[in-house]
UniProtKB/TrEMBL annotation:
Residues 32-173 have a biased composition (Low complexity). Coiled coil: none annotated. Residues 175-259, 260-342, 343-432, 433-519, 520-602, 603-692, 693-776, 777-863, 864-950, 951-1037, 1038-1121 form the Fibronectin type-III domain. The lineage of its organism: Eukaryota, Metazoa, Chordata, Craniata, Vertebrata. Keywords: Repeat, Signal. Residues 32-174 are annotated as: Disordered. InterPro entries: ECM_Regulatory_Proteins (IPR050991), FN3_dom (IPR003961), FN3_sf (IPR036116), Ig-like_fold (IPR013783). Pfam families: fn3. This is Fibronectin type-III domain-containing protein. Residues 1-26 form the signal peptide.
């Protein structure tokens, strides 16, 4: 503030003296102050009644009472008795006063400095009053805070709706009242007050602020002061001027509103902060208030950084300039903006293919509207493919294979323009797979790979090869590659993969497998050469091989070993064998090693000596299988060298003559191959010349299995005699007789005797004789298909021959016989249940020679019983009866069965009582007559029958109505199929069936006695168990149309309609609040007497059945006598 002039000081001093003198002469008055100020201060002794939150007393004063609802109130100037009315929000009083009453709704009131002259117009929003007072004051305030800081000596009354007011000037009884500031702006205020001017008077308005001041004279009680400076605290004083004199001024202080700030901008916008900048407004201001959301912050400077904002959120910031009173604020300037969305995290590329990638990312903290996604390769503009998405993933398709793409993502706010930090990631798409991979130029140690260039981009090809033991790899920029240094005969897998320029992103691999060629085998030899086989041996080749292939002629054989025996060769033939090592694919083979050779000619077969005489033999043999060049033949006896008589022939026969009779000769022959050296196996045969024939052969002592032969010694030499019979039977003896055994009975044998040389095979001429043996006994005689009048005999054919069979049979009374050529016979006309003996004898072809007889005894079957009946059926037993069968029998076998149990017994009688059966079960009864051997049984008689079901128990009747009852019972012991239900009553009969153990019977007549009958029925739907019965009345029906007639003081006459159905009588009940009575009647009316006059009676009519207990539904009515 500037310095005060001497003139100003003198004027102020004179004014103060004048005010004090006026106060001493004034009447004692009471000043009431009522204010709504938040803060009030009183500096003189006072009695205070206030709901204020804070109260301070800092200056002496005369007795005073303060009442205020002001938010803040200060008193700082002395006043004479005065009345001040203000709507100010803030009020201050700072001068001493006499007793006064102040009433104010002001929040804050202050008194400050003079102002410069100004233009004056009408009503003001802010007012200031600053006047001395000499009277005691009384203050009553509900203020939150109150202060009183100056003495007061004059009575005064202040009431102000002003936002701010100060009282600082003395007044007389004709001073102005209710000085208020009604309108405040940045450059003017509107003042209003109450005072009627007298003729020739005027109002002088003065204002001061810091170093400026002004004044104006008006004749109306309001003025608009313009040309003020924004944000300045002005003191406005009003004086009534009459002629050359003036009243004490009434003053009020008010702050002009600060001007609006200029050029509000937002800079350095981040995800959680913004820097606000503006230009200081015209005029003055103390500080700035920034409001956003439900927050406000104070700034002393023209910029402020707002922190802790939510990313991607919209904010509106309102900035006010605030005056030095910390309350008066100017018009707001505002700006709206979005914070930047937060940075995206976990941005990943997955599911990479040759033409697409799948992008995923985490939702950023805070808000965002959408994501802007773009991508580029080295040849495309970044924004040309920008897309927007609301999701946290995106599938990008249509990319080129093997290309390095940069994918950038940015979160955008809802204003479509504010973007968060861009996050980028680069990745190559996978190169395409190479095609048409082929393997060529395969050797034992190398292969040549070729393939076609894949679509799209690639940097190079990665080549990998692997076997079960080794791995190798290389790279190339070409579409072919020669792999060397491989192992022979090994299966290699070759993998070609296109690799992108990042040297890590690989396309799909193309794979092929191929074996290298095995190496050549070594040291091939042929051993163990036979007529049809040769054993080949060799040494394993270098490297690996799975097996070996041997090729000869048009044949291929496989072996896994380094040797193989080749079979099924042609004897005496020339073969060339080629041996290859073969890889495990059974296809790739190495270079062959080969060997040529002849097989041995085959052994000669069917080498025989024929046309043997005493001096010659004729040799023949079969051509050996396979090839040969010629045959080499020689022979000898025990005295000659084998080779001295060797001859060669191309034929398969040779006649040797000039031999000695009865001499044993050895003849040998060998086949020779075309190489003149390879010989087959030599075959030799020995033979004697033939001896002479025997004579006078005879057969004697003939039995079924033997004969005795005799003959005379032949002329000449022999070794022994060979005996033959039955074509294939032989024996030998050195004697001229022989017993032959083991012959077949009944067979005609030819017996031949031949002299045999010492070689045991060369025979002389044979002599023969024929004779029959006796037939043999039959075996396995059996009797089958036994009936009461026949049997069927079967037996096995006896060993040897026979002509026919003689059959005989006998019992103790009869005999019979017959013949047959068969091994079976059906004997008929027998008696039932009789024991017969059957005799079978085989007869030779001479019709007279018989074999030993075979006998067998057997009973015929008894006849089947007749007229089997079942009677006296109970739940646990039946009584069986039948008639005696025709013929014989020993006893009867009785059997019975159901689906779960079996039983049996025997009896000699024609009846039997079976007990212990289960109720309601279907039993099958079987009766069989048995012969005396206790095993032969006649045909069975069979019948089936159900036992009776058991009787039900605990039959009960419940849920009885006028037309139905509900029956329940317990399941009977044993089986049953269903229950038959019958009921009978008044004129009706009814029946039904059920599988349950309960049944609801409907359609009955009311009040009728019904008999209900329950019977369990077996599954044949015919056999019934014992019946259970129960009787029950249905309920009578309800009466209708109950009427009360002829009502007197002591009686009523009741009438009603007969109910449907039956009933026995009616039960009548009547009751009041004190009495009960009842009666019965057979009629449909009843006169009740002995009632009490004027009482409300309830009358109840119930129909009762004939059992006198079953009652129908009651009908009730009430009536006063």
């Amino acid at each position: 503030m500037g310095r005060l002039s001497i003139k100003t000081v003198c004027k102020g001093t004179a004014l103060l003296i004048f005010v004090i003198l006026q106060g001493l002469n004034a009447e004692t008055a009471t000043t009431s102050t009522s204010t709504l100020s938040t803060e009030s201060q009183t500096t003189a002794p006072a009695t205070t009644s206030s709901p204020s939150t804070e109260s301070q007393t800092s200056a002496p004063s005369t007795p005073a009472t303060t009442s205020s609802s002001s938010t803040e109130s200060q008193t700082s100037a002395p006043t004479t008795p005065a009345t001040i009315s203000s709507l100010s929000t803030e009020s201050q009083t700072s001068a001493p006063s006499t007793p006064a009453t102040t009433s104010s709704s002001s929040t804050e009131s202050q008194t400050s400095a003079p102002t410069t002259p100004a233009t004056i117009s009408s009503l003001s929003t802010e007012s200031q009053t600053s006047a001395p007072s000499t009277a005691p004051a009384t203050t009553s305030s509900p203020s939150t805070k109150s202060e009183t800081s100056a003495p007061s000596t004059a009575p005064a009354t202040t009431s102000s709706p002003s936002t701010k007011s100060e009282t600082s000037a003395p007044s007389t009884t004709n001073a102005i009242e209710n000085l208020t500031v009604t309108e405040i702006s940045t450059s003017f205020v509107l003042l209003k007050w109450d005072k009627q001017l007298e003729m020739g008077s005027s109002f002088k308005v003065n204002w001061t602020a810091d170093e400026t001041h002004g004044n104006v004279t008006v004749t109306v009680p309001n003025v608009t002061v313009t040309g003020l400076i924004a944000g300045v605290n002005y003191t406005f004083c009003i004086t009534v001027v009459v002629a050359d004199t003036s009243t004490e001024p009434v003053c009020i202080s008010a702050w002009t509103k600060p001007d609006v700030i200029m050029n509000l901008t937002a800079d350095d916008i981040t995800t959680s902060s913004v820097l606000l900048n503006w230009i200081k407004p015209n005029g003055q201001s103390s500080h700035y208030r920034v409001e956003y959301e439900d927050k406000n912050v104070i700034a002393e400077n023209t910029s402020i950084k707002i922190n802790d904002l939510i990313p991607g959120a919209q904010y509106t910031f309102r900035v006010f300039a605030v005056a030095a009173d910390n309350e008066t604020k100017g018009r707001a300037n505002q700006i709206s903006l979005y914070t930047k969305p937060d940075v995206i995290k976990n941005f990943t590329v997955s599911k990479i293919t040759t033409s697409s990638v799948f992008l995923t990312w985490a939702e950023p903290f805070g808000n965002r509207s959408f994501f802007k996604l773009n991508w580029t390769d080295e040849n495309l503009d970044l924004n040309r493919k920008a897309v927007e998405t609301n999701n946290t993933s995106y599938h990008i398709t249509g990319l080129n294979a093997g290309v390095n793409y940069t994918f950038c993502i940015t979160a955008a706010a809802a204003d479509q323009s504010t973007e968060g930090e861009t996050l980028c990631i680069s990745n190559y798409t996978r190169p395409n797979v190479a095609s048409n991979l082929t393997v060529s130029e395969i050797t034992p140690s190398s292969v040549f790979l070729t393939w076609e260039e894949p679509l799209g981009n690639r940097s190079f090809f990665k080549i990998q090869w692997t076997s079960d033991k080794t791995n190798g790899s290389s790279t190339t920029n070409n579409t072919s590659y020669n792999i060397t240094g491989l192992t022979a005969g090994v299966n290699y897998t070759f993998i070609i993969t296109a690799v992108a320029a990042d040297r890590s992103t690989e396309g799909g691999s193309v794979v092929t497998s191929k074996y290298t060629k095995p190496d050549v085998i070594m040291n091939l030899t042929a051993d163990d050469i036979t007529t049809s086989s040769v054993l080949l041996n060799w040494i394993k080749p270098n490297g690996q091989s799975s097996h070996y292939r041997v090729e000869y002629e048009d044949t291929i054989v496989i072996t896994e070993k380094t040797s193989i025996k080749i079979n099924d060769l042609i004897p005496g033939a020339q073969y060339t064998f080629r041996v290859f090592a073969v890889a495990a694919d059974n296809e790739t083979k190495g270079r062959a090693n080969q060997i040529s050779l002849y097989t041995k000619p085959d052994v000669i077969m069917n080498f025989t000596v024929s046309t043997i005489t005493t001096s010659s033999v004729f040799l023949t043999w079969a051509e050996p299988f396979g090839n040969r060049s010629f045959f080499k033949l020689n022979w000898t006896d025990e005295n000659l060298d084998l080779n001295r008589k060797a001859v060669e022939t191309n034929n398969t026969s040779y006649h040797i003559t000039g031999l000695n009779a009865g001499v044993n000769y050895t003849f040998c022959i060998t086949a020779v191959a075309a190489d003149q050296s390879t010989e087959g196996e030599t075959l030799c045969i020995s033979n004697y010349t033939r001896p002479n024939v025997a004579s006078n052969l005879t057969v004697s002592e003939i039995t079924p299995s033997s004969v005795f032969l005799t003959w005379e010694e032949p002329v000449g030499h022999r070794s022994f005699f060979k005996i033959q019979w039955a074509d294939d039977k032989t024996d030998a003896t050195t004697n001229t007789s022989h017993q032959i055994t083991g012959l077949t009975a009944g067979v005609n044998y030819t017996f031949c005797i031949t002299a045999v040389a010492a070689d045991q095979s060369t025979e002389g001429e044979t002599v023969c004789s024929s004779q029959f043996t006796k037939p043999n006994m039959i075996i396995n005689l059996t009797v089958s298909e036994i009936t009461p009048s026949s049997v069927f005999l079967k037996w096995d054919e006896p060993f040897g021959n026979r002509s026919f069979f003689k059959i005989q049979w006998t019992d103790d009374k009869t005999n019979g016989s017959s013949t047959t050529n068969n091994t079976s016979y059906n004997i008929t006309g027998l008696n039932a249940g009789v024991n017969y003996t059957f005799i079978i004898t085989a007869v030779a072809a001479d019709q007279s020679t018989e074999g030993e007889s075979l006998c067998l005894s057997k009973f015929t079957k008894p006849n089947m019983i007749i007229n089997l009946t079942v009677s006296e059926i109970t739940p646990s037993s039946v009584f069986l009866t039948w008639k005696e069968p025709f013929g014989n029998r020993s006893f009867f076998k009785i059997q019975w069965t159901d689906d779960k149990t079996n039983g049996s017994s025997t009896t000699n009688n024609t009846s039997y009582n079976i007990t212990g059966l289960t109720a309601g079960v279907n039993y099958t009864f079987i009766i069989t007559a048995v012969a005396a051997d206790r095993s032969t049984e006649g045909e069975s008689a069979v019948t089936s029958k159900y036992t009776k079901p058991n009787m039900i128990i605990n039959l009960k009747v419940s849920e009885i109505t006028t037309s139905s009852v509900f029956l329940t019972w317990e399941e009977p012991v044993g089986n049953r199929s269903f229950f038959k239900i019958q009921w009978t009553g008044y004129k009706i009969n009814g029946s039904s069936t059920t599988n349950n153990t309960s049944y609801n019977i409907t359609g009955l007549t009311a009040g009728v006695n019904y008999t209900f009958i329950i019977t369990a029925v077996a599954a044949d739907r015919l056999t019934e168990g014992e019946t259970v019965c129960i009787s029950q009345f249905t309920k009578p029906d309800v009466i209708t149309n109950l009427r009360v007639n002829n009502t007197t003081t002591s009686s009523v006459f009741l009438t009603w309609n007969e109910p449907l159905g039956n009933r026995s009588f009616f039960k009548i009940q009547w009751t009041s609040h004190k009495t009960n009575a009842n009666s019965t009647t057979n009629n449909t009316s009843y006169n009740i007497t002995g009632l009490t006059a004027g009482v409300n009676y309830t009358f109840i009519i119930t129909a009762v059945a004939a059992d006198r207990s079953t009652e129908g539904e009651s009908v009730v009515t009430s009536k006063y006598t």
